[in-house]
Amino acid sequence: MELTAEERGILAGKLGEAARRALEYQVEVGRFWQARRMVPVTNVHLMGDIEVMGDGGLEFLREEVRLGARCRVSATTNARCIDFAHCERLGQDPAEVAKEREIIQCLRRMEVVTTDTCINYQTGYQPRLGEHVAWGDTGTVIYANSVLGARSNFESGPAALAAALTGRTPEYGFHLDDHREGTFSVELRATLDDLADWGAVGKLVGEAHQNYFAVPVFHGYRRTPEADELKHLGAALASYGSMAMFHFVGVTPEAPSELPEQKFAVSEKDIQNVHAGYSLGDGDARLVVFSGPQQSLPEMKRLAQLFEGRKLKKGSSCFVTTNAAVLARSRALGYAKVLEDAGVTILEGVCFYILQNLSSLRRANRWTNLVSNSAKIVNIIGAHRFNAILRRTADCVEIACSGELR
Amino acid sequence: MVEGEALLSEEGFSPRYDLDRWSGIITRPGHKLEGMSLVDKVCFFPTAKGGIAAGWAFYDIKWKKLAPKAFIFGVTNPVMVQGAVFAGIPITAGWTPHPGKVIHSGDWVRVDPARKLIEVIRRQA
Question: In whole angstroms, what is the distance from residue A2 CA to residue A50 CA?
C-alpha cells in the first residue's frame, strides 16, 4: 500500500502505541482487499457491547485505555445490549450488566460519544454526498451509501474503532466508484403501504442476490418514499442479502440514468406471498416487537396513534426500542405515555435482538413466536430459536391487543 | 503457514447465527455442519453470512481458545476479514479449483496464505 508520511509516522509510533497497532491492523485488512491506500474519514460509528464483544473484547478495550487510546475523529456507538433501567426486570445477568458499564466507561475515556443508537443517520450525523465514513451496523452503512451518497464499507467493531483512532480506513469496496454502480435492476410494481412491505422487498431482493457487492437499482415506483421506508428497505437488504448499497431512481443521489441489464421485479402478489409465508409455530402470539432498527420519532407517533386508548391482551408483551433523543421527545409529546398506558415496554439505547440473555428471557416467558413489522429482526431472531412472523404495523398492534395472530 | 484437519461445509457461515461461542460447535438447527466443532480445524465455507457483530466474535473465540486454525472462503465479506485479521486467524478467499473437489473433511492440510497454496499432507484414513 502507498502510505503517506503521516501514516508512516503513525506506524513509527508518533501517535502512541494504540494508534500504531490500529493502523498496522488496518493495513493488513487493506492488503487483503488490495487497497491502494488509506482514505481519511470524518465520522465513525461502532458496535461495542458486552454481548458482541465478550470478555476478550472487554480486555482489549481495557488495554486500549491503558495505552492512552484517543479518537482522532468524531465517533458514536451503536445500539447496545442492556437498558440499565430495565435490566433487572428483564432478568439480565448482573455480572454482564457491570461489564457493560465498564465498556461504556472505557469508550468514553477514549472520547467515543456513547449515543447507543442504530439510527445515527436519523438523529446523529448525516454525512454528505461523497463523504468517507467508517460505520458499523449494516443498516447504518447501507443508508449512508444509498440515501446519503456517503461512502462506507461494513466496518465491524474492531475495524471501526481502529478507524476512530487513526482517522482513516483502507480504500476498498464502497469507497471506490467501481463498486458503487448498480449491478441489477428491480422494478417495484407494488404499492408498499407499510414499513413491513418495504422490509418484504428487501427480503425478496436480498435473498435472491446474496452478495456484498451486489447493488440493486429500484425503479418504477410511483410515490416518493419516506426516510423510514428507505430505512426498512435498506436494513432488510443488508440483513437478507449482505448488501451495502442500493440505488432508487428519482430518490437516491447516485441513481443511474440507464438501468443495468439483469432484471428483477416485485409485484403486489410477491409482497402478499411474503406475508402469507409466515405462520404461527407452536404456542401463541404473545410477543410483539418494534425494533431493528430503533424507532424514529415518526414511527413513535404512528405507534402512539395505533395504541391510543387500547391495552395489551393480558399475558401478552410488547417491546419498542428507540434511542435517548427520540424517547425524550416522545415523552415531551405524550407518545411514550400513550404506549406505556397501553402496557408497552419502551427500551432505550438497545436493540431487541442483541439483548443480553435474550434466549433465557425467551425460555422464562415461554415465548415461542415473535411478531414484528421489521423484516430484519424476523430474519435474525431465529438465532435465539424464536419462530418469527412478519406483519404490517397496524396488524402487529392488533395482535398485541388481541393475542390473536391475523 | 498453518496445518490442521480440514472441515468442509456446503453452507455459508456466520459466527453469530451458526456457532455456539462457548463450545466452538455449530449449533444452528439445520446447518450442514450442525454438531461439528470448529476448534483447531481448517474451515472451508463457500460464503460468509451475518452482520457487523462477527467482527468481535472471532477474537472472542480465540480468547476462549476455541478458534479454528484458518478460514478458507469461496467468497467472503469485509466483516469476516476484519474479524479474522483482528483475531490473528489466517483467512483466504477465492480458490480455483473449488477446494471441495480436492479436499475432504478429515484430511490433514497445510495452508500458506501468502503463497495462496493449500497442500493435502495426509488423506483421511
Answer: 36
